Amino acid sequence: MNRSLISVVLGSYNRYDFLKLTIDSVRKELVDIPHEIIVVDGGSTDGVVNWLIKQKDIITILQHNRGIWRGKSIEKRSWGYFMNLGFRASNSKYVCMISDDCLLLPGAIKNGLKLFEEQLNNNQKIGAVAFYAREWNKETNYCVRYTVGKKLYVNHGIYLKQALCDVNFINEDDYFFYNADSDLCLKMWQLGYKIIDSKESFVEHYPHANIKIRSQNHEKYLQDAEVFLKNWKDVFYDGTKESLGFASYIKHEDVFRTGDKYKNLYLKNYLTNPGLFIPEVKRIIKRFINFCLFLVLNLF
Question: Could you give all domains of the chain from N- to C-terminal order, each with its CATH number?
């Protein structure tokens, strides 16, 4: 049976416009690479399912995660459960995980694969390669993130499929949404795998693609964080604030202006969610005040 080099796995729910942009960036990136695209949809109602089933290069897994069926509420599953459906279904040496509200900068996956292959050929035990990402229209630089014990983890990036199998994939039971990606990578570190960053792989992330769903997920943040720290206490987490993790930023100029594809959706999102203007206005006022202070301190 022929095996693809890489599977790109995305979880999605009611992000029709964003998902189409994400898939477009994936297709352009992998045009010359044997690959498969797997989308795990949580029962979207915005028309994206009809679009997905017409895409002959996409493997679509539909797993309803909301609503009523035969008079009973459907049990809401965790993020890990959904991603594992795609991870386990993949038929490739590598598995790339990105969000459905992201855009790959040209070369992101290709450069990550090149680095991965080089390291494995040098007998390095690599479990994953992390991409640098930034919040589009909010951050200037791109970052990778470190979790407890100063261990790098993957928010967007590439996993070795064998490493995923060795750690029995994502912990589906302990985390609803947050920290499951950190937990997955710590399990790899625990087995002796290394996770490295690709300084030639970049992602634009749209921060407000689905306000309602993000708000619902955030309600579980403290619960997930408490379980995460308990699970890794005295392993990688020593109980101190200093070991909680951090972000590492680098500068990169996107000459392709990849994020410009979000401009129309950005306007549409703000018009339909007026509350988003409040933090935006605060941010503009803060910048204006800082600029005025700069003028006062340097010109007078």
Answer: 4-299 (3.90.550.10)
